[in-house]
Amino acid sequence: MKKLALDALARHLAAHAAAAPSGRSAETVYGGHEHVLRQTLVALQAGQSMAEHVSPGEATVYILRGRIRVVADRTSWDGRSGDLIALPRTRHRIDAVADTVALLTVAKY
């Protein structure tokens, strides 16, 4: 069994993102490319994005702190701390409306 203090890691990644030229920081906390399930903690500074992409499987994003907007085609969904968003299986991007830390979970098919 493995236990992680996500809140402490979220603070660390948020500080790293604030100092990074890209305004982003991420760390896979469970799984990886060789597993079906992958969970990645992502920190984005306000105004930064995860570029448009198609998920390699079913995916959700749980917002630990901050606010995001998920944009797919002409539709968007807003989320804030405590919200869980099931990501569309179409091309989409994630924009940070405010400084954000979120847990991205992907189950590859």
Molecular structure report:
With 109 residues, the protein is mainly beta. It has a single domain (6-108), classed as Jelly Rolls, CATH 2.60.120. It is 13% helix and 54% strand. The strands form two sheets. Strands 1-2-9-4-7 form a five-stranded antiparallel sheet. It starts with 5 loop residues before the first helix and ends with a strand. The mean pLDDT is 94. It comes from Rhodococcus aetherivorans.
CATH superfamily: Jelly Rolls
Q: What characteristic shape results from the CA principal axes?
A: globular
Under the CATH scheme, which architecture would be assigned?
Sandwich
Q: Which ranges are low-confidence, i.e. pLDDT below 50, for 5 or more consecutive residues?
A: none
Domain Cupin type-2: 41-103
Organism: Rhodococcus aetherivorans
Protein name: Cupin domain-containing protein
